[in-house]
Amino acid sequence: MALYEHIYLARQDVSQQQVEELTATLTELLGQGGGKVTKNEYWGLKGLSYRIRKNRKAHYTLLNIEASPAAVAEMERHMRINEDILRFMTVRVDEVEEGPSAMMQKRDRDDRDGGRGGDRGGFSGERRPRRF
């Protein structure tokens, strides 16, 4: 069995629950082909760099897959037919990352900083004396 990282973008007007159902459908489809999904991460609704089919945002989802090339090809065929999927990309890898992906680590870091962007100087709540 080969290892793959697969990312797909779903339209902005579908709900998060529909994206999770779509992921479950793809997981079941891979299971029928003898493969399995080892990691599933929903990255959320994010802005796109450019419009794709009149969409400015998309739901991003990452799947780490362990499956045969035929099972992955069948999954991609179904994704091409589905109108809710804007784009997808599958990359074969030698080994998959353990733990959260870089996108999830970024979100954790932003949550710790309170959305301020870290130690960049900003407003500290105290007023410093002026120097003339």
Automatic annotation (TrEMBL):
GO terms for molecular function: small ribosomal subunit rRNA binding; structural constituent of ribosome. GO terms for cellular component: cytosolic small ribosomal subunit. Residues 105-119 have a biased composition (Basic and acidic residues). It holds the Pfam family Ribosomal_S6. Coiled coil: none annotated. CDD domains: bS6. Residues 97-132 are annotated as: Disordered. GO terms for biological process: translation. Signal peptide: none annotated. Keywords: Ribonucleoprotein, Ribosomal protein, RNA-binding, rRNA-binding. The keyword RNA-binding applies. Belongs to the bacterial ribosomal protein bS6 family. Binds together with bS18 to 16S ribosomal RNA. This is Small ribosomal subunit protein bS6. It comes from Devosia ureilytica. The gene is rpsF.
